[in-house]
Design goal:
Length: 822
């Protein structure tokens, strides 16, 4: 009898469940939407937004086509309602805790569960978690009413005795670019833009955003960590820590003085490094919480061991601005990033992967996430972690002054905490920056005009509450990341913009300064500068819904959002380039113009190292098909700038200056390796005759900039418009000219082509008897050319790979700059 009783006990124990983990249900099915005053419901896709749903139901025309943008402005003025029904199983209803998690509602939303109002929101950037167990039933209805932003903005505006700069958008916490920008449309969305989830659990629910990994000590032999669990359930449970799927630490229970703190150690740690400077190594770290042998929950993250520091130190010139990674200075090379689509639901993981691959392919190591967009999806930061791309992360404030009432400040404080907590474990996050150009606008754009001293003091004090108090305090208490108040530190009207902090140099473009200005005015860190160009032929055809390349149609003109954009492109083109009358040729020339100016700036800044320690051009990408400052257009096509920037961002860069009769040759090495080889500088005619040359064996130190030659060619007889300068080192070549592109006397000759099928596309072999400048390959076939807008030396075969899924390439065409100068 005694043995039978023991058997029953063992049997009962063996039947204990091995798991009691939280249950997560995504509520993304069966959604419908309508205007609040309508009676007919239409199908909706969640996550999404009202514009996408209207498009899907063919109730509006595509605002990215022609001038349809104007026809859909009514959408933002309406109130919209979404609803779904969902079932909950009995075993889920029996959980002790049931929570609805709203990851993103844009923006003024009233949420009803089974006709009970459970939530009112006013911030698209915040997450909201609500315990809903008392309201849930086996069958449920979730309904969300979105109110037009203009209604709430009018209420908030009426509370102020004065008007704040830059319109009513400042009152609403959502993506500011949706109100229209000088590169983007006015498409003010509303809707469920991020997932809604129902989470049920009994004892433990570990949230990833409430879990922080803190590096306590780092040596070559070991790294000591604490994992801070804000959702710690009990010191009585056991905690297992896995690194790369190997159990390395077991806490049978936490000490009373370490509540919510789990420690572990990694031996012989591998560091995370930016792209091209080492491996961006990531550890898989997981914490499992158990009650006896029963798993209650776990939380996992990828983690890179690194130390990133923004160094701002006074020196004999002003004040430095550069990043150190793992104790080593890093020259930042990259661009400014904006949202990839006006409708975030249209951005897929494939889009993220392709764009970040394009960033890596162009030898970039930093992106600045601009403050008028969004705090990006996790996928974006995951890929930056994996690829070694440093992220300068703006808080979402741009080009405006914002309110300072208690409700607004509390709202954005919670926004900051939500997003800093969500992103703090990412190795790629190098900096949190308070805003984009708010301080510059206040001090330089006339925003203070005709205001009383009391009014100006109040507005500036409200600025300080946000950017000098709330945001830096949030960053300091949550991650180990530096904070920068505003980008730029000084506007370009202040002479300090070149000697302290970061700079936005818009003397070119906005003030029509020549590109040479960038060579003569180099700041400590260039965080913005840019120039527009037309997009690809594919994008233009899409805008026009026509095979012709028409850049004069009213529909196409609507895709130029800068009031002087077309005029400025034309003015700059006349200075340095021939101006074609044919639209297709004009588009090609505009891209060469953009690349010419921006790479002139990139190389000047790199030649100024270590005085200058970073160059980020404006901008990487587009949110719709447009004439803009991007180097990659909305369709994913590389413009000339992206191809040329790839060369200008190479870790070992050959860069020449030609002033009068003086050539100076620089070798810039951003890597941590010594480079040795033969450096040859040569002047050759376009038919390949050598006029003059010089060469020597050189050594280039790690992370250095050296002037290797200063050559005076006064007295050397040659026609400057009929030659080029070729500088070669270790398989690299830099081509420079002695006159402006429009003044070159290039020869006309055929470019011979041979197309060879390969497994993933085609190889295109090209050859010419004369020097060919800026050879551009194009086709209606969708794909990517490994190189484009490149120079061809005489009698040399060039092999360009065209990656495509197409089985044939029958419409390949090319342009060469030679045909425009005779």
């Amino acid at each position: 009898m005694r043995y039978s009783y023991l058997f029953l006990i063992l049997f009962a124990f063996s039947c204990q469940p091995k798991y009691d983990v939280p249950v997560t249900i995504e509520l993304n099915q069966n959604w419908e939407f309508k205007k609040v005053n309508d009676t007919v419901w239409k199908s909706a896709i969640v996550p999404g937004n009202v514009f996408s749903d209207l498009l899907e139901n063919k109730l509006i025309e595509d605002p990215f086509i022609n001038d349809n943008e104007e026809k859909v402005q009514w959408v933002s003025q309406e109130d919209w309602e979404y609803k779904t029904t969902f079932s909950v199983k009995e075993e889920t209803l029996e959980k002790k805790n049931l929570e609805l998690n709203f990851e993103g509602l844009d923006a003024y939303a009233s949420v009803y569960l089974n006709d009970s109002l459970i939530l009112k929101t006013n911030n698209a950037f915040r997450e909201f978690d609500l315990i809903v167990k008392p309201l849930l039933k086996p069958e449920n209805e979730l309904r969300i009413v979105f109110e037009s932003t203009s209604k709430q903005e009018a209420i908030e505006k009426a509370k102020l005795p004065y008007e704040l700069p830059e319109g009513d958008r400042i009152f609403t916490r959502k993506a500011q670019f949706q109100y229209g920008w000088d590169w983007g449309p006015k498409l003010n969305t509303s809707g469920i833009w991020r997932p809604i989830k129902l989470v049920g659990w009994n004892d433990i629910h570990l949230r990833k955003e409430n879990t922080q990994i803190k590096l306590r000590q780092l040596t070559d032999s070991k790294a000591d960590f604490n994992i801070l669990l804000e959702d710690y359930p009990s010191t009585e449970y056991s905690y297992e820590v896995y690194v790369n799927d190997t159990l390395i630490q077991l806490h049978k229970k936490l000490p009373s003085d370490m509540i919510g703190v789990v420690s572990f150690q990694i031996k012989n740690p591998k560091l995370w490094w930016p792209h091209n400077l080492g491996e961006p190594y990531l550890y898989d770290i997981k914490v499992v919480v158990k009650d006896g042998k029963k798993i209650l929950d776990s939380v996992s993250t990828k983690y890179g061991i690194r130390d990133i520091e923004l160094v701002t130190e006074k020196d004999s010139i002003g004040e430095s601005f550069y990043f150190k990674v793992n104790g080593k200075p890093v020259y930042a090379k990259g661009a400014n990033y904006i949202p990839q689509n006006s409708f975030q639901d249209k951005v897929t993981n494939t889009h993220y992967e392709k764009l970040l691959d394009d960033v890596v392919d162009a030898n970039m190591n930093m992106l600045r996430v601009w403050g008028g967009g969004i705090y990006e999806n996790d996928m974006f930061y995951d890929l930056c972690d994996e690829k070694g791309i440093l992220v300068w992360q703006d808080f979402m404030f741009a080009c405006a002054m914002y309110p300072g009432d208690d409700d607004f400040l509390e709202n954005l404080k919670q926004e900051a905490e939500d997003n800093v907590k969500r992103l703090r474990n990412h190795a790629s996050i190098a900096l949190w920056c308070g805003n984009n150009e708010n301080s510059e606008g206040w001090h330089r754009w006339g925003w203070q005009a005709n205001r009383s001293e009391e009014e100006k003091e109040e507005i500036w004090n409200n600025y300080l509450k946000v950017f000098d108090s709330i945001l830096p305090n949030t960053v300091s208490k949550l991650p180990d990341t530096d904070y920068w108040e505003s980008s730029p530190k000084y506007g370009r009207g202040n002479p300090k913009y070149k000697i302290e902090g970061d700079a936005h140099d818009w003397w070119i473009w906005h003030d029509s300064y020549p590109f040479e200005h960038l060579e003569e005015n180099v700041p400590r860190f260039m965080s913005e500068f840019g120039f527009q160009s037309f997009p690809s032929y594919e994008a233009i055809r899409y805008i026009n819904q026509s095979d012709s390349i028409d850049i004069s149609s009213e529909g196409f003109k609507n895709h130029q959002k800068h009031i002087r954009g077309f005029e400025l492109i034309d003015d700059y083109m006349k200075r340095d380039f021939p101006v074609p009358t044919n639209a297709e040729d004009y588009v090609y020339m505009s891209q060469l113009l953009q690349a010419y100016g921006i790479t002139k700036g990139i190389e000047a800044q790199r030649r100024a190292k270590p005085y200058n320690m970073g160059t980020l051009y404006w901008q990487l990408n587009d949110c719709w098909p447009a004439v803009s400052w991007s180097s990659i257009d909305f369709m994913g096509n590389w413009k000339a700038l992206h191809y040329k920037a790839k060369q200008s961002f190479e870790d070992v860069l050959i860069s020449n200056t030609i002033k009068g009769d003086i050539i100076e040759t620089f070798l810039i090495n951003d890597s941590f390796q010594i480079e040795e080889g033969y450096l040859k500088v040569e002047i050759r005619t376009f038919n390949n005759d050598s006029i003059w040359s010089i060469g020597k064996n050189i050594k280039v130190s790690p992370f250095s900039k050296d002037k290797k030659y200063r050559i005076n060619f006064d007295g050397l007889e040659f026609n400057k418009d009929e030659v080029y300068l070729a500088t070669k080192f270790n398989g690299k070549i830099a081509i420079d000219f002695f006159v402006k592109p429009k003044d070159l006397k290039l020869y006309q000759a055929e470019i011979h082509q041979r197309i060879i099928k390969s497994d993933d596309g085609f190889t295109i072999e090209l050859q010419s008897e004369t020097f060919q400048k800026d050879v551009f390959l194009y086709s209606k076939t969708k794909g990517h050319f490994s190189d484009n807008f490149f120079d061809m030396l005489p009698n040399k075969t060039y092999a360009i790979h065209f990656k495509t899924d197409a089985k044939s390439l029958d419409d390949l065409e090319l342009k060469t700059f030679n045909t425009f100068v005779r």
